[in-house]
Amino acid sequence: RYLDDVPRLEGELYGGLVLSQHAHAIISVDASAALVMEGVVDYVSVTDVPGDNMIGINNDEPVFADGKVMSFGQIIGVVLATDKPLAQRAAKAVRVTYEDIHPPVITIEDAIRAGWFIGEEMKVEDGDVEKALSEAEHVLEGEVRVGGQDHFYLETQACLVVPKGEQEEVEILSSTQGVTAVQTNAARGLGIPRNRVVSKVKRIGGGFGGKETRGCYLSTAVAVAANKVQRPVRIMLDRNEDMMTSGGRHPFLGVYKVGFTSQGRITALDLKLYSNGGISADLSIPVMQRAVTHADNVYKIPNYRAVGKVCRTNLPPNTAFRGFGGPQGMIITEQWIERVAEFLKLPSEQVRRLNFYHDGDATPYGQIQPKVHVSRCWDTLLENTHYLTTWRSSVDLFNKSNKWKKRGLAIIPNRYCLAFGITFLNQAGALLHVYTDGSVLLSHGGMEMGQGLHTKMIQVCSHCFDLPMDRIHISETSSDKVPNTSPTAASVSTDMYGMAVKSCCDQIMERLKPFREADPEAGWDKWVERAYFERVNLSAQGFYKTPDLWFDWSKGKGNLYSYFSYGASASEVEVDTLTGDFTILRSDLVMDVGDSLNPAIDIGQVEGAFTQGLGLFTMEQCVYLEGNGRTQRGQLFTTGPGTYKIPAVSDIPVQLNVTLLDGTSNPQAIFSSKAVGEPPLFLAASVLFAIRDAVRASRAERGIIAPFQLDTPATCHTIRMACEDQFTQQAQQCFTNLSSTRKWTVNV
User: Fold this and answer.
1) Do 658 and 647 touch, CB atoms closer than 8 A?
2) Between helices 685-701 and 326-344, what is the axis angle to 10°?
3) How far is C-alpha 232 from the chain's CA centre?
4) Residues 624, 748 contacting (CB under 8 angstroms)
5) Who contacts 122 (Cβ-Cβ below 8 Å, separation ≥6)?
6) Are 378 and 568 a contacting pair, CB within 8 Å?
7) How far apart are CA 592 and CA 372, in angstroms?
8) SS (H, E, C) 571-622
9) What are phi and psi of 334, to 5 degrees?
10) Whether 226 contacts 232, CB under 8 Å
11) What DSSP state is assigned to residue 362?
């Protein structure tokens, strides 16, 4: 059961959201037409907030718009009614008058011109970049764009707030990755201590980072509404509402200057990264921090400088998304690596391998990588697939025999760094009760969103107690069981909560030690029973903090991460050069997951992350309107599955092979395992570069040898136009003529 399956409570109302339809405007609101509708109970707005209307990580985002709106989808008010259809009809009856403030800042380029940024620039630098570039044999410069992505979780943002009727107590059930964030922001908005707010979650229907912070604005608005009428209030967003309000993956612009030798050795990189953060900070700064510390990917670059700036725009705040800035930084690097290889007329896999990190190498920010498994992943993949021999030969043979269909092949490495980039978040708690019948109730600060966290925590407990898993139960995640929790994010929940659970188990086992030693054959139930009669505490609280983490951003140096995960992927695609459509014939993935706690879950996570990465790199496109008489600049056009394409069953590889690398025990995590949620997402980059390889074959057949760029997402339209022939030339002229008279969309 998910949140919307919770039965209706007595007196429960439904909230209909009044959302901004302009990107930047002064507003006046008239709710009188809604309030006279039968079944409508009340209208809630900024005047009803008893506490602070400004919430969020930097307290820079309003619960309700106060006199003006700063982005599309901003919450103006909530209409409370007896059911959902009525609440939504009434919300549409609320009259909002807009006086536009021109021009809204929508794109990265808009923000750069306006000097409109969030926070300070982030920089990581090593070596002497200017000197190395001046002395380099070859230098290339260019730009790379990376598009955004919607989370498109199956369960949209949802919450149910129940006032308890005494001492200002409130219970919030929400679809969230951040139980404490919901509690904290609701308490702030209501103007009450956090100990009056209990935040709970049973499970959620997908999150991918989109429910780490963004659900807090909905739950706080609903908490204010429930507080006003002192009745339960529920909201579950429709898909179009969710896509319009919740933000997504940050679009990026990368500007690079790279120096290299004739053999393909990279000697210097000067990289500027810009992201579209939206109107408020949210998590944009730590996302950029991860981007600048991942832009080296697996490559040892002796002279390295990456500078990141977050652009403020009049769009909903972009937020955490699986990979958290890492994929954007890494794909930009792989794009210029590909260009270096083409410039030198060398196989791209040769240039990549030449520049790999090795054991003991330091990152540009000074952290040592004790065991670098990328070469093992790479070699395992080459050996398993016969990539350099039969596989490449078969692709070349196909392309010689076919004019309008071309195949492409690519192999891509990746490295992902594990830990929250904000040090204080690397902490975890757990609470464990052993009952006198021997059953165990386990609580921890992480929540279940389909990633198998609860299963792994039960496994840890089962192993420590030597008990069957069916004797251990996890009920829910709740702020009154484990306080001050970090969000379930950054792929490290198993690492941290596993250690906290183990701490609980170790304490209980130590207390049971006298009974186990006195009667080793008695068994668990008898030991527990005897301990109870001897008045031994059978409850334990566990806590864990990830050790040895620190970073100084003023110097760009430190020990930012706990450990590193490596992988490699190879993909073969077939592209229809007349339509741009493509089929993934085969993908082989090798992933370093340490000593896997549960190979079935981990392989599922690798496959799922790969598929989501496939959407990011090849098909999921967030389209914003330029604005004309009937639409507004910055309005999201892709607000549902009719206009926004996510990977379907027909889009995944015909043949998908996953190998978990063995012999990579990790002493930094529970039972020598490694994280698996985010690291595999970048493996899908092999599909993008396989498409690029097929396009290159098509262009070469037509005598086109000029360099070309395939930015992401590489949609069918983008692929078709990159193939270049007489038809694309005619189409390009048509697009140019249309754009000169009316531009429909804007690239944010």
Assistant:
1) no
2) 30
3) 31
4) yes
5) 285, 288, 289, 292, 307, 308, 309, 553
6) yes
7) 10
8) EEEEEECCCCCEEEEEEEEEECCECCCCHHHHHHHHHHHHHHHHHHHHCCCC
9) -65, -30
10) yes
11) B
Find the catalytic residue in 212, 349, 678, 724.
678
Which tokens is 427 given? 């902490």
Distance in angstroms (rounded) separating the CA atoms of residues 52 and 66: 12
Cβ atoms of 329 and 122 closer than 8 Å: no
Structure tokens that stand for 60 in this block = 């820079």
Strand stretches in 186-279, DSSP E = 197-201, 233-236, 252-260, 266-278
Distance CA 40, CA 87 (A): 7
Q: What predicted TM-score, i.e. pTM, was given to this entire model?
A: 0.97
- pLDDT (tens digit, 9 = 90+) per residue, 676-715? 999 999 999 999 999 999 999 999 999 999 999 999 999 9
CA dist., res. 174 & res. 151, Å (int): 17
The residue count for the chain: 748
What DSSP element (H or E) covers 79?
A: strand 75-81
Residue 740 confidence (pLDDT) above 80: no
- Is the pLDDT reported for residue 67 higher than 90? yes
Are the CB atoms for 398 and 411 separated by under 8 Å? no
Structure-token pair, residue 636:
């999201």
Do residues 165 and 28 lie in contact, with contact meaning Cβ atoms separated by under 8 Å?
A: no
Is residue 171 within 8 Å of 198, Cβ to Cβ?
Answer: yes
Contact 192, 51 (CB under 8 A): yes
Structure tokens belonging to residue 675: 């994280």
- Rounded CA-CA distance 633/77 in Å is 22
Instruction: Using alpha carbons, select from 417, 407, 373, 322 the residue that is nearest to residue 568.
Output: 373
Tokens representing 505 are 């188990």
Q: Is 574 a catalytic residue?
A: no
Token digits of residue 13: 């109302």
The dihedral region occupied by 206, where left means phi > 0, alpha psi between -120 and 50, and beta the remainder, is left
User: Nearest 5 degrees, angle CA 203-CA 208-CA 213?
Assistant: 80
